[in-house]
Design a protein that fits this description.
The structure is a homodimer. Chain A folds into 3 domains: about 45 residues, 434 Repressor (Amino-terminal Domain); about 130 residues, Rossmann fold, CATH 3.40.50.2300; about 130 residues, Rossmann fold (3-Layer(aba) Sandwich), CATH 3.40.50. Chain A is about 45% helix and about 15% strand. Chain A has a 6-stranded parallel sheet, with helices on both faces. Chain A has a 6-stranded mixed sheet with strand order 7-6-8-9-10-12, sandwiched between helices. In chain A, helix 1 crosses helix 2 and helix 10 packs across helix 11. The longest helix of chain A is centred in the middle third of the chain and has 16 residues. In chain A, about 50% of the residues are buried. The model of chain A has no long low-confidence stretch (mean pLDDT about 90). Chains A and B meet through helix 4, helix 5, strand 2, helix 6 and helix 10 of A and helix 4, helix 5, strand 2, helix 6 and helix 10 of B. Chain A binds a DNA duplex (30 and 30 nucleotides) through helix 2 and helix 4.
DNA sequence: CTCTTATGTGTAACCGGTTACACATATAGT
DNA sequence: ACTATATGTGTAACCGGTTACACATAAGAG
């Protein structure tokens, strides 16, 4: 392994000089710089991040904690975070907590032990305790907290939009899927939808479910058994929506004529479903980027205009909802 | 930050003793161990991985490089790798190369600089050059190489199975999707399918496409325009299959009566499509675990029974293929 | 009772960077 | 000519672990 001392010897200078050239810090003579850079190139020297990190107590790594890497929404967040970080010369340790608190704790510890410079957490635990007395900056992503920096989409509005759009298109007996209670964003979209539904002349049912694949299928089955007269479904995310769409078609419901479905998230696969899924789009990629930017600001101790960044959601009209009737 | 010296002071011993107790190495007296462990607990001491890594030139991190985190096949691999590693007390740096060689190079560098103890690479570059003179053990995953350890599924057999099953079920004019040429596993399944198709009394078309979402949609459109008489499609992966299924339904083809489709991978969403997608299953999670095990063996310099582990693939019969006619 | 071996512990060097500080020289200001 | 300041470089301490080695004591062998 080539070390800074090898470079120093080759260039005929001290390690301090090499370090200064390397980091553009302090003074260094033009000629020396050239000498050092040549030596670096010739030896193909790459500084050891670990040594650097040990002294500075700061690595160039960011910890990103996801609740469930299988849900396509999260990889999309990750891409946003990663692209932004890459531009800053930083890299990601992605941890998958698999919705298990133990794994989350483990990863936070790993992050600390490896001197990550900041953490972005998208897990779905209600408590932020784990993060309370961390000396590392943390940004919560797709998660709402009062006293911590966070980036999330406007769940209240999302829920409202979903309800409004499905009502506007004529559903009268609506099933509203409620995501896990501990996930605040899920509750927001739920509340938003409830608000709208209450104000409208429609009946509705609430069904609680988790966000996982497995649960989605079960819920879909029971939904149609218990509430066969349902003519509109507001799903808690696209995964459940896919499962419901699947089950609805299986039992011969006609979509969207007989039953409308609105998803939530707009994962890449949603438009490949048939019929393509109408959904409330969360700008996952951009949320990732924003979270990364926010974290960078905190790390660099720049003043923050806002601690919490709320991103807009949009209704993506595809074909699990009917065309709205023109009445103008 | 609590350091080993703090612990030593509190326990009234030297740092060497603390280190020995910590790692169960060398001798240490029962009483001393108790003392040290108490001090550790009281101070809530966690060893600094970075310092450890600097001296040992080995971290407890594994680098996992994925070509495209959005393709659900890869997160599934990642889960397998992660679960196995977790049991070994190791952690993952997941890098998303986004199919870009530059990112791949970058990540390999990051992995090196952070003293990862091993690398698992699932990228789709043909050349293994980048990995040639790395001093770090590398295992290739979902990738076939001759002179490097690797774990992959039996593409040849997968292709054959797909062809055989679709032929058995009566398709006569088959479109065969060929994945990216540089991806060896894609070529294998392609070749396997070609083999079978040639031996059968059917016509077939070859169409080349990438593995990405975007491409999948385009290919689906052109496929039906150029070859409207197609009555069976062997897709290069489930993503393309989903896109094709979608397009087929859009233009009013009846699945599976009029047109059969077989996917490849069996990603979690495949069974949520409608009709649920018949596909060739690659045991992604298990592949991940095997790759992790193999890497561990190499790291621990255990003898390897085999350098390359080939995993079996299975045909998952769902409903984009017809029931096979009983003729017994 | 002495010699060997096993057990237990501390000192200090080391890993590969960074940086405070000392020192030397050049340049500018008065 | 004489400071004051800017520029350029080297020495060595430091980050927080690990471990080779020295040393001390206890136990076992003959």
């Amino acid at each position: 392994m080539v070390t800074i001392r090898d470079v120093a010897k080759k260039a005929g200078v001290s390690v301090a000089t090499v370090s200064r050239v390397l980091n553009n810090k302090g003074y260094s003579h033009e000629d020396t710089r050239k000498l050092v850079n040549e030596a670096i190139k010739e030896l193909n020297y790459k500084p050891n991040e670990v040594a650097r990190s040990l002294f500075k107590k700061k690595s160039r790594l960011i910890g990103l904690l996801l609740p469930d890497i299988r849900n396509p929404f999260f990889p999309e967040l990750a891409r946003g975070v990663e692209d932004e970080m890459q531009e800053q010369g930083l890299h990601l340790i992605i941890g998958n907590a698999d919705e298990k608190p133990k794994k989350e704790i483990d990863y936070i510890e790993t992050f600390k032990q490896n001197n990550v410079i900041g953490i972005i957490s998208a897990t779905n635990q209600a408590e932020t305790e784990l993060y309370e007395d961390l000396s590392i900056p943390v940004v919560f992503l797709d998660r709402i907290t009062n006293n911590h920096p966070s980036v999330y989409a406007d769940g209240l509005d999302g829920g409202k939009k979903a309800a409004r759009e499905i009502i506007k298109r004529g559903s009268k007996r609506i099933a509203l899927l409620r995501g896990p209670i501990e996930v605040r964003t899920a509750q927001d979209r739920f509340k938003g939808a409830v608000d709208e539904l209450c104000n409208a002349n429609v009946d509705f049912q609430v069904i609680t479910s988790s966000f996982s694949f497995h649960d989605a299928e079960k819920v879909a089955k029971t939904l149609f058994e218990k509430f066969p007269e349902t003519d509109g479904i507001i799903a808690s995310n696209d995964l459940s929506a896919a499962a419901i769409l699947h089950e609805a078609l299986r039992i011969g419901r006609s979509i969207p004529d007989d039953l409308q479905i609105i998803g939530y998230d707009d994962i890449p696969l949603s438009k490949l479903l048939f019929p393509p899924l109408s959904t409330i789009r969360q700008p996952a990629y951009d949320m990732g980027r924003e979270a990364a930017k926010l974290l960078m600001k905190i790390i660099e101790k720049q003043p923050l205009e806002q601690l919490n960044i709320q991103m807009p959601v949009t209704f993506i009209e595809r074909q699990t909802t009917r065309k709205v009737e023109k009445n103008d």
